[in-house]
Amino acid sequence: MIPSVQQCFDLMAKYEMLENIKAHSIMVERIASLMARGLQEAGESLSLDLVTAGALMHDIAKTQSLKTRENHSAKGSEICLQNSLDELAEIVAEHVVLKSFSKDGPVLEKEIVYYADKRVNHDKIVSLEERLAYLIKQYGNGDETLIRRMGKNFDLCKQVESKLFSKLRFAPEDVAGMIRT
Description:
The protein has one domain (5-178): Hypothetical protein af1432 (Orthogonal Bundle). Helices cover 65% and strands 2% of the residues. The model has no long low-confidence stretch (mean pLDDT 95). The two termini are 30 Å apart. The protein has a two-stranded antiparallel sheet. By secondary structure, it is mostly helical. The radius of gyration is 15 Å and the shape is globular.
């Protein structure tokens, strides 16, 4: 089942999502939906409902994971499955790191949510470079192995960006101006 927007907000309440994480999720959804609509117009076969719900739910486990230190994307995927949201489980599981990516394959909903998440720092739209710098400062802890992994993940994200925007009528730097805040 793909949950409605209201059902997503009900689940955010059920799992006691912090307001700042909710604000982040809403902004990720706005970017993801903008891109999904543009990609549909370009002929891509996508579910806007799946993109919307995936973006709203991508951090469903973040609040509890801040306390438990468990992987929030894996826990979020579990939460989706527990709530019969099987269609969302993969999107939530892969919003931090895509497990598979084909630059020549069809655009997938999980790629849009993955990318949109990387463009939002708290609830502000930023470039990929700004987001990476923030994540390294916030979570890198001087761990060179972790920082290298983060850099590789953002290299992949740049490939996703290239794939998505090769089909869109606007550029990555146009996104912020297209979202009313």
